[in-house]
């Protein structure tokens, strides 16, 4: 829960350093399953700085996580502006953690939808 909340806050504040600190030095962050992952804290920092650059008015909701040992799955629902246009970005994070509570591997699946939408009633459960 603490990691997920810190991730949410880092995104809303577009803080690439705070995001990078959530990961191990050897972590992989795969934002697109068809591309090579971003590697290590520097890779996460560079990715976040780039991807959040055009974002503003970011509001992130995180669902209730599914936990299986050191593996976690959690939905996110984000309303924001991208280059001034309203966008909705729902998705899911698949996470692996080390014993210190930092993420060693992240895979995410998401969909951009123009406009601002609320999640359906069953979302995030």
Write the layout of secondary structure elements.
Layout: H1 2-12, H2 16-21, E1 23-30, E2 38-39, H3 40-51, E3 55-62, E4 66-68, E5 71-82, E6 85-97, E7 103-110, E8 113-114
Parallel strand pairs: 1-7
Antiparallel strand pairs: 1-2, 3-5, 4-5, 5-6, 6-7, 6-8
Question: Could you describe the 3D structure shown?
Answer:
This protein is of the alpha+beta class and 125 residues long. 23% of the residues lie in helices and 45% in strands. Strands 1, 2, 3, 4, 5, 6, 7 and 8 form an 8-stranded mixed sheet that branches. Strand 1 and strand 2 form a beta hairpin. The protein is globular.
Brief description of this entry?
The protein is α+β, with helices and mostly antiparallel strands. The chain contains three helices and eight strands, in the order ααββαββββββ. Helices cover 23% and strands 45% of the residues.
């Amino acid at each position: 829960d603490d990691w997920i909340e810190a991730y949410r806050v880092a995104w809303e504040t577009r803080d690439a350093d705070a995001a990078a600190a959530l990961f191990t030095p050897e972590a992989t962050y795969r934002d697109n399953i068809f591309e090579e992952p971003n590697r290590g804290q520097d890779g996460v920092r560079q990715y976040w700085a780039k991807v959040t650059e055009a974002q503003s008015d970011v509001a992130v909701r995180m669902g209730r996580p599914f936990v299986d040992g050191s593996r976690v799955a959690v939905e996110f629902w984000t309303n924001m502006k991208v280059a001034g246009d309203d966008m909705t970005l729902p998705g899911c994070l698949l996470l692996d953690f080390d014993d210190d509570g930092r993420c060693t591997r992240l895979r995410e699946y998401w969909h951009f939808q123009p406009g601002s939408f609320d999640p359906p009633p069953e979302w995030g459960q």
